[in-house]
Inverse folding.
């Protein structure tokens, strides 16, 4: 097992170097002089230009620049935002819990609905329920979520007046960040109604962000379940006279979950992609919206650092899923 | 494809001659109602795109603030002159959607063409050369796959500058790894087969082996991925348009139309509803078609 973990961990090193290279060259690929680009339309005088060139190290050879960049990144120094002058890392740290909270809720939403839906669809193959689940999940899979969010706002916020349109919590409440997760912090604060307000604000973004993973999980669970239900050991279990519940939950589901776990892992990337769109629609103060804002403000250090950090997060989650996969499926860890 | 269809169990057992591959393909494909529905929708969208000049009742660009935000015809205040209503600056939504179908199809086809050509070549090279070149190409593709697709596309567009062409390049680059992996995997399974050895023994060069012998036999998975890829491409390009990074106004691109209309969501439901529906239906159709093609072309999945 240790050997398996070590191989997997060492495999991400080239990927890490690749991501840093990408982030490093990103800012150097911007057409024109990077300092003038950063200065924007205001322009910049020659002396300040020279000073900035030295500060950013643009006067040194490119591989030296990369070396300096890498050593800074490893020390947690990702530069400063051109707009707020705050370190990129501290901005990311402050905003990431909001994205994380949304992503966790979304994946839970997808799992809670997707797993049973896929299971039942497989057990009752070709029933109306099965066709319904497959049809809906195909639509969910094809959903432009930025539109889906607007439609949900239109129905639930505008027509029915049930949920708020944007933000994480009502402006009435000021919650001291403890964990950064508002659901927990609002409970800790003990303020009346704060938790309910946080939940209300979470509902629509969770549905929007969870739609694509939900569709994928339902489809995957169904097909994995169908495959497992056709196996010999299920027939044996039936022949032994085991109860339906035991067969499905203990024998079939456990084996069907293996491919589903991988799919959940792959959804992490989808979640962060979706978070960018979801946060933009609902003005959710997370890293996705932060990155998009950075683009329009031409805040290149934020874009560079933020993309790098998100890349590292996705990479780490993929690694964890890989390890979990080895844990639940011994065939994998013994084969390699 | 031919090699694979030979191995597949024959549909009609008793006939003396095996059915024509195309006929067999259609037999499998048409059994899937969803796929046929997808194909019909796609044919419709293509027709609309081709006949946009004839079908659109108004120009997609001419603005007229005196008729701004007219509701669709079935609502009070709407008229049949503007069947789906007008947008905040008085352009006919139906006409913009009709012209938008041109853009969306163009976007999908161009993106997938770029990545399929580039991806197949890279995949063939990786599969044939093995060694360092292969490791380099595949590692690079793994890195691209690690990053969330839209994030990478956003970063690329942020660097190149917003716009239709740049957003298409960005999305093409982001979906490239799928084609490279597919082509490489297909090459590796194909090269161990006898017909490749036979061709090699008769003196065929590597380039000939790549393009004349192996490539035609890996087209099936590539066609399936292309159909599914068009739906991803249309969706991602629309998302970029929605974020203001893709096609720029006043282009009638569906995602861009949504971005323009976003602030009017509280006042006029129709300005956001229809462009999104158009995206959803088109993407759904390509996904249905892709699923159907996969079932019909991939003998491993034939049951």
């Amino acid at each position: 097992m240790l050997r398996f973990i070590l191989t997997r961990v060492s495999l991400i090193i080239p990927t890490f170097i690749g991501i840093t290279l990408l982030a490093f060259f990103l800012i150097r690929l911007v057409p024109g002089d990077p300092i003038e680009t950063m200065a924007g339309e205001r322009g910049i005088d020659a002396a300040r230009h020279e000073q900035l060139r030295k500060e950013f190290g643009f006067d040194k050879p490119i591989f030296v620049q990369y070396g300096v960049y890498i050593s800074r990144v490893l020390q947690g120094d990702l530069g400063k935002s051109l707009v707020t002058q705050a370190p990129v890392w501290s901005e990311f740290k402050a905003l990431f819990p909001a994205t994380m909270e949304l992503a966790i809720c979304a994946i839970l939403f997808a799992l809670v609905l997707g797993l049973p839906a896929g299971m039942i669809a497989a057990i009752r193959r070709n029933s109306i329920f099965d066709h319904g689940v497959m049809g809906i999940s195909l639509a969910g899979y094809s959903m432009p979520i930025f539109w889906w969010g607007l439609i949900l706002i239109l129905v639930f916020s505008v027509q029915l007046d049930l949920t708020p349109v944007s933000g994480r919590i009502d402006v009435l409440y000021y919650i001291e960040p403890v964990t950064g997760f508002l659901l927990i912090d609002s409970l800790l604060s003990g303020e009346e109604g704060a938790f309910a307000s946080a939940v209300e604000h979470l509902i629509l973004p969770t549905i929007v962000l969870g739609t694509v993973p939900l569709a994928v999980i339902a489809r995957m669970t169904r097909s994995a379940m169908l495959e497992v239900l056709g196996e010999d050991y299920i027939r044996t279990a039936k022949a032994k006279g085991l109860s339906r519940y035991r067969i499905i939950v203990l024998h079939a589901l456990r084996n069907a979950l293996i491919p589903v776990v991988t799919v959940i892992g792959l959804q992490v990337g989808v979640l962060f992609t979706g978070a960018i769109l979801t946060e933009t629609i609902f003005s959710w103060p997370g890293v996705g919206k932060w990155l998009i804002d950075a683009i329009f403000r031409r805040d290149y250090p934020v874009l560079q650092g933020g993309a790098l950090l998100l890349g590292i997060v996705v990479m780490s989650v993929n690694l964890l899923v890989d390890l979990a996969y080895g844990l639940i499926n011994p065939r994998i860890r013994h084969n390699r | 494809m031919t090699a694979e269809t030979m191995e597949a169990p024959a549909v009609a057992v008793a006939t003396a001659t095996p059915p024509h591959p195309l006929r067999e393909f259609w037999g499998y494909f048409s059994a899937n109602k969803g796929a046929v529905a997808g194909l019909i929708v796609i044919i419709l969208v293509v027709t609309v795109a081709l006949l946009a000049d004839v079908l659109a009742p108004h120009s997609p660009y001419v603005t007229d603030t005196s008729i701004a935000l007219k509701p669709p015809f079935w609502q009070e205040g709407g008229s049949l002159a503007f069947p789906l209503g007008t947008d905040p600056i008085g352009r006919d939504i139906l006409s913009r959607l009709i012209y938008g179908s041109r853009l969306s199809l163009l976007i999908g086809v161009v993106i997938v063409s770029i990545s399929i050509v580039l991806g197949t070549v890279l995949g063939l090279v990786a599969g044939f050369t093995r060694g360092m070149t292969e490791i380099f190409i595949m590692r690079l593709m793994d890195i691209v796959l690690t990053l969330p697709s839209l994030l990478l596309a956003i970063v690329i567009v942020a660097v190149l500058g917003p716009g239709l062409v740049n957003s298409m390049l960005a999305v093409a680059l982001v979906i490239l790894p799928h084609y490279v992996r597919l082509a490489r995997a297909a090459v590796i399974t194909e090269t161990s087969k006898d017909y490749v050895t036979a061709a090699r023994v008769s003196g065929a060069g590597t380039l000939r082996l790549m393009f004349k012998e192996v490539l035609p036999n890996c087209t099936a998975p590539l066609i399936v991925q292309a159909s599914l890829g068009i739906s991803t491409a249309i969706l991602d390009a629309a998302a970029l348009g929605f974020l203001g990074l893709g096609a720029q106004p006043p282009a009638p691109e569906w995602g861009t139309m949504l971005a323009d209309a976003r602030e009017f969501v509280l006042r006029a439901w129709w300005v956001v509803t229809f462009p999104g529906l158009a995206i959803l239906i088109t993407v759904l159709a390509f996904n249905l078609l892709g699923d159907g093609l996969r079932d019909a072309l991939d003998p491993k999945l034939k049951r």
User: Anything to note?
Assistant: The radius of gyration of chain B is 23 Å. The interface with chain A takes residues 34, 139-140, 142-143, 146-152, 154-155, 158-161, 231, 235, 238-239, 242-245, 255, 258, 262, 265-266, 269, 272-273, 275-277, 279-280, 283-284, 287-288, 291 of chain B (CB under 8 Å). Residues 1-8 of chain B have pLDDT under 50 and may be disordered. The CA atoms of residues 126 and 137 of chain B lie 7 Å apart.
